[in-house]
Structure formats: C-alpha cells, structure tokens
TrEMBL record:
This is UvrABC system protein A. InterPro entries: ABC_transporter-like_ATP-bd, P-loop_NTPase, UvrA_DNA-bd. Its main location: cytoplasm. Keywords: ATP-binding, Cytoplasm, DNA damage, DNA excision, DNA repair, DNA-binding, Excision nuclease, Metal-binding, Nucleotide-binding, Repeat, Zinc, Zinc-finger. PANTHER family: UVRA PROTEIN, UVRABC SYSTEM PROTEIN A. Residues 2-443, 455-752 form the ABC transporter domain. It comes from Sporosarcina aquimarina.
Length: 756
C-alpha cells in the first residue's frame, strides 16, 4: 500500500496581499520562506498557518474554557488541512518590565527559589520569601529594585524660571499636565515668580512639601467646581508617583523620562540584589541566592550538579535542562540576574529560542521569524544545529529567513514575490535548493559581499577613552567622523555598551535608532506615523472651508457605524470571532460627509490610497515632500499613505522606523542592525541611504553582523573576542581591506564569504 505524503495543505490563501495561492508544506522538514521584505511571507506563515493552528487547538477545549482563551478569526483561505500544534518564535523584542531577568523569563528562577527554601541554611521559609517582590524578601531600603533612585531637584527644576514658564522640567508635573496647572491655580504658589525668588517657607513647601506632621490642601478646579487636594511637595510627589511604582505600566511617561530627572546608585543595604539582608544569609555550598543569580550559567551548571541532598537534587535536575539549553546556544556567559532589557538583539533572540526548546514533544510545527537576526556569522552554526535537531525529533520547521547560510540548509524553499506589497503575494518558486539557483531572479545564492576598495579618509575622530561600561575593559577607540563605520563582533562582545551607552552619553546629539518596536496599530497609518497626516488634513480644510477634524477617521470624519475602524465585529457569542467590512462606509472608515469634499479631484480616501511614489504629484508642501522622500529613500515607495502600521512586515517596520529618524536633521546617526528583516536586494537601497547621508557631511555608525554592510563600510571596529566577561576588548580597527588580513572571527567570515 502506497504511503501518502505527510504535508500541510493550504489552498486559496488571501490574507493581506496573498493572491489566492496554493501551497503544500512538507512535514518533518526544514521549510524556509524567503523573498523581499513585504512579499507575503508573514501573511502565509503567521497570519494563515500559525493563526489557523492556534484556532483549531482552542476548539479542543470545552466552551467555558475557550471563553477564557485568546480568540482567533479564521484566516481568509479556502482549505487548511493537516496542521499540527505550533510553537512560534517571533522577531518582536522580548517584553518584560524593569524587573524581568533571564532567570524569570526562562522560568529558572522559581526553581532556584524553591531550592533555597528546601535546602538552604539557615532555613528561611517559603520559596516566595526569596523573591525581591515579596513583602518579606524585598530589601527595605530600595523596595526590591536593587538601586536607590532619588529625584534630583537640579534636574527637575529650573530655578531661574517661574511655574508658568515651565520651571518644572518633568512634563507630567509641568503646566501642560493637570498637576502643573493645579500648582499654578491652587493659590499656594506665585505662578509668575522665579522659584529662586520664593521666600524659604514657600520654596520648602513647593520642593519638599509641608513640615512633618502637617498637611496642606489646595483647591483643584474641575467642571463640578473646586475640590480640595493634598499638596505633598514636588520631590515626595515625584518619588511616590514615578519612582515607587513600575513606570513601564504608565502610558504617558517612560522609564527614561523618570531616570533623566533622577540620580540612581547601587543600594548599600542589599548591594544591588534587591533582597532583604536576612534572605542573603541563607546559603547553599557557600553561595547565597544573589550570588547564585550572578554566576555565569556555565558556573551555575557546575553548582547545580554538586547538590547531593535528595530533595535538592530533584529540584536542581528540573532547572538544569533550561540552563543547559542557554549554554548550548552560546549564552553560557550570561547570568540569571541579567536584565532582559539589557540583552543585545542576538542574545535576546537566542534566549527566546531557548525558552521554546525545553520540550521533548514531537510532531510540532516550529515557526521562526528570522532566527538569524542579531547573530554573528560565527553563531549561525549553532542555530543550524538546533533547526536540524528539531527536524530529527520528527518536528516540522518553518522559517522566514533572508540569511543565505540558513536558506542553504533548507529541505524545501518557498520564495514569495515577485515584488513587495501589492506587487507581491505570489509563490515564485517552491522546491529544493538546486532549483532555486535556476529559477529565482530575487535570491542570488552566489552573492558575495563587495569589499570597499576606495574608503573615505577620515580627517577627524570621535575619541573614546577609558570606557568601562558593563563588560568593556578600559576601552580606548578612535571613531572616524563623516564616514560610514561598522561596529561588529559576536553577541555580547560589548558593541551596544560601547556605542549605545558610552558613545551616546558622550555625544548626546547622536540620533540613535535602536531595535525597539514602533507601536503598530490599526489606527496608525504611514501618514500619521511620519507626521504628515495633520498637514494633509489642513490642506483639505483650507481647500474646502471645513474643520480639519472632518478629514480624520479618529475624529469628526469617522464613519458613524464602525467608529472609523472600517470593519465591524458582530457579537457571535462563543463562536469564532468574525470581522466584517463595514457596509456603511465600505471599509473606508470615513463618513459620507467627509467623502463628499475633494482636493485636486480626490477625496480623503482616494488621497490615502496614493502610493508614496505618487504622493508628490498632489502635494508640494516642502515638509510633506521631504518626509515622503525619506520613505522613498528606504525603498518603501510601493506602500500607500493610508496603509496601517499593523499590516507592515518586520523589514518594512524596520525601514519605516529608520525613515522617521532620517527626517530629523542631524550630524551623527547611530543604527542598531539596520539590516534586520531585509532581503539582500533591499540592503543595497539602505546602503545608498547611508552613502548619501555621509556625502552630505554626516557621520553614520552601524552596529551590524551583516557582511554586506561591513564590507561596504569605510571603517570597521570589531569587539570581542567572545561575549560577556570574555569580551569587551577592541580586536580590530581599520578598513574592510585591512580586515581581510586580520586574525579575528569576523575577518575569518569576511574572507570566506568574499572568497579573498
């Protein structure tokens, strides 16, 4: 009897830009989706395959359980068969608040706390008592944060100004917010007198609050009349509202805003651990829990294997596989206490991967979104071994990837295209590697990085001396000005510490473009994100004599039926959610009145349907032209003004973010892995942008692993030799040609890839 081929069957896929395509994805193979950024890869893999698998998985639960679970709408497709449960490792930055560490993210830390509560000596109590977030376990001095953060009155207040002149520099406490307005109208303070001219009693009341034991109230005026509100002083109020709480949960204020007004020092009581001194007295083999947390993971493995107590051994053996997974992925130099927010892109990517690989289940579909992101070529081999081991354990591996080394290990390659956006959404090729060489006009498997033979000569330098941030070993480096500089090295070698910490601190005028997300939403469009929607609305308002708000689907112009969403979500009780195009506005989001007004023969919806390429035919306002041109520069000319940011691919988001920074006029641009999410063909466009910036007299510094960018630079700096404690040194400074003769790990790969 003939064995049927086991594969995932997908028919009539129409999500986003997909053109009614059919696909068979073989199981227990490594399947790589490639193609230009925005060609439809994510629409197949995430919006169809992963979504449908998750939807069908939830259908196995009783209805009352399903109501508590995420609800998934059925993707737009005719047929989706033979799916298996999915594990998704996305490209999005690792979330987590200011307390999130490698230990908590990997679920290792709860086991370590349990270990100390069972076999630590002297015995303390329950596992929760070993947490800096428990009432007993947290340090009484720093409230469990490990740092003593205090407001700095000289940063917070400009004493030469009055309250009305924004003497309080912190926005939520300035006149633009209700608290600042209350200070001016409550009658306690003269809003027009410079703070330095206040009598001592009024100055102390403003800055420190009333004397101990006293309370002071001032009327706060609302639409219902005045209400008495207690005044506690600027510094106590700042401490209470913005320091003694998790700032990451606040919408209007970021942690950076708060820290900019504060001084922060290591807590003298707990020495940065955030733990009560009583907890720190409890030890296992001479180490307390804070010392356990600070061990490098390779050292932690040794300590865990030393435990002989039967109960302790059984707990340790549950923690060992997760620690081993991190070590196997080359992260043995990290510690459990390392804050997730401080990891480099490559480190965070591998921690994320490790978190999902602890399972011994098989017949699972593992989906990876550009797993090579943030990895040095030297580290790709570990990734490839991991993908192979997943396949050998009878799992299906689906990878979205542009890296040629990953594409070359695929059993099945699916290339999407031929272009991006509306020009994409088709399957250009499916099959083995050998066939791709002959049929693809997009992915060139013989591509070699082109070494810059004529680098620009530097005339002056940014000088960095005695830099010791994180793992940096008293680094001294001269970074050439007005040229294209690449800073490279393995993950954790000190690139970000040198550039995004030390360099940005010394040169605060730097326009730094990190890897953070842009806050995508279905209400945010390309035009709003780039800051030109207000101008377009004003142009419509001027031409028609109507209020500008009429041309916003978030304001007066919203369709009254769908409130400007363009879709309605009827209540279908416990069934799968359904999104229906709004019948009243036909998905345009605008009211009939808004659509009745035109500018240059087009209504607001028709204007928003213009591609970036077409926009300058309708608008000649210099501000709009300049911002639209930055989108063209980064290769996004095919997108429309009204495209929602939530519908963009990872590579498109990366370039949109870059365009938003390029519209700022600056002299120093510092970019963290600008090649993320980009196909090799897209890289050339980005390189042109950097070359143009340098030609205009700017300095462009990129922290990169991509050899195309390193080879095209005028100057290269390599950090290393390894990550963590074994990194933090400058290994190489010179031109790409010089690097071909160097003995470093990046030089080895540059020689290999260029054939030099």
């Amino acid at each position: 009897m003939k064995k049927t081929k086991d594969e995932i069957i997908l028919r009539g896929l129409r999500e986003n830009n997909l053109k009614n395509i059919d696909l068979n994805i073989p199981k227990e193979k490594i399947n790589v989706f490639t193609g230009l950024s925005g060609s439809g890869k994510s629409s197949v893999v995430f919006d169809t395959l992963a979504t449908e698998s998750r939807r069908q998985m939830t259908m196995n639960y009783p209805l009352y359980v399903r109501n508590q679970m995420p609800r998934y709408e059925r993707p737009h497709a005719d047929l989706m068969q033979h799916l298996s449960p999915v594990v998704v490792v996305e490209q999005k930055p690792v979330g987590g608040n200011s307390r999130s560490t490698v230990g908590t993210y990997m679920d290792i830390h709860p086991l370590i706390r349990l270990l100390f509560s069972r076999i630590g000596s002297p015995s303390i109590g329950s596992a929760t008592d070993f947490s800096s977030q428990s009432s007993f376990g947290k340090c009484p001095e720093c409230n469990g944060y490990g740092e003593v953060i205090a407001p700095d009155k000289d940063k917070l207040i400009d004493f030469d100004k009055s309250l009305r002149e924004y003497a309080v520099r912190f926005k939520p406490l300035s006149p633009s917010g209700w608290q600042g307005n209350w200070m001016m109208t409550g009658g306690l303070f003269d809003p027009d007198k410079p703070i330095k001219d206040y009598p001592k009693e009024q100055y102390d009341l403003l800055v420190y609050g009333p004397p101990e034991g006293e309370r002071v109230f001032a009327p706060f005026h609302t639409k219902d009349g005045p209400h008495d509100h207690e005044w506690d002083g600027l510094l106590p109020r700042f401490t209470r509202l913005y320091i003694n709480r998790d700032v990451s949960k606040l919408k209007q204020t970021s942690q950076e805003d708060v820290l900019a007004m504060s001084t922060h020092t290591l807590c003298p009581t707990c020495h940065g651990s955030g733990l009560n001194p009583k907890v720190l007295k409890c030890k296992i083999n001479g180490f307390n829990i804070a010392e356990y947390d600070q061990l490098e993971l390779t050292e932690l493995l040794t300590e865990l294997t030393k435990i002989t107590d039967p109960i302790g051994k059984s707990i340790a053996q549950q923690a060992i596989p997760n620690v081993q997974q991190l070590v196997d992925l080359g992260l043995g130099y990290l510690s459990l206490s390392r804050k997730m927010g401080t990891l480099s892109g490559g480190e965070a990517q591998r921690v994320k991967i490790a978190r999902h690989l602890g399972s011994s289940l098989n017949n699972i579909t593992y989906i990876f979104d550009e797993p090579s992101a943030g990895l040095h070529p030297e580290e790709i081999s570990m990734l490839l071994q991991m993908l192979e081991s997943l396949k050998e354990n009878h799992n299906t591996v689906v990878v979205i990837e542009h890296n040629l080394a990953v594409i070359k290990v695929a059993d099945e390659i699916i290339e999407m295209g031929p272009g991006a956006g509306v020009q994409g959404g088709e399957v250009i090729y499916q099959g083995e590697l050998s066939g791709l060489k002959n049929s693809s006009s997009i992915t060139d498997l013989t591509h070699k990085p082109a070494v810059n033979k004529n680098p620009r000569a530097a005339e002056s330098y940014f000088s960095m001396k005695n830099v010791t941030n994180n793992n940096l070993k008293n680094v001294r480096v001269e970074i050439p000005k007005n040229v294209l500089v690449s800073v490279c090295g393995v993950s954790g070698s000190g690139k970000s510490s040198l550039m995004f910490e030390a360099f940005s601190e010394k040169y605060p005028e730097t326009i730094a473009v990190g890897q953070g997300s842009i806050g995508t939403s279905s209400r945010s469009t390309l035009a709003t994100y780039m800051g030109i929607m207000d101008d377009i609305r004003k142009i419509f308002a001027k031409a028609t004599g109507q209020p500008a708000g009429l041309f916003s689907f978030n304001s007066l112009g919203a369709c009254p039926v769908c409130d400007g969403k363009g879709v309605t979500t009827p209540d279908v009780a416990f069934a799968d959610p359904v999104t229906v195009t709004c019948e009243a506005c036909d998905g345009t989001r605008y009211s009939d009145e808004a659509l009745s007004y035109k500018y240059e023969g087009k209504n607001i919806v028709e204007i928003l349907e213009l591609t970036i390429e077409e926009t300058n035919n309708y608008f000649d306002m210099p501000k709009i032209v300049r911002k639209v041109n930055t989108l063209k520069d980064v290769g996004l000319e095919y997108l429309t003004l009204g495209q929602t940011t939530s519908s963009l691919s990872g590579g498109e988001v990366q370039r949109l973010k870059l365009a938003s920074y390029l519209k700022k006029e600056g002299q120093i641009y510092l970019l963290d892995e600008p090649s993320l999410g980009l196909h090799t063909k897209d890289n050339d466009k980005l390189l042109d942008v950097f070359e143009n910036l340098v030609d205009k007299g700017n300095s462009v510094i990129i922290v990169e692993h991509n050899l195309d960018f390193i080879a095209a630079s005028d100057w290269v700096i390599e950090m290393g030799p390894e990550g963590g404690r074994k990194g933090g040194n400058v290994l190489f400074e010179g031109t790409p040609e010089d690097m071909l003769h160097a003995d470093t790990v990046t030089a080895k790969w540059l020689k290999r890839e260029t054939g030099a």
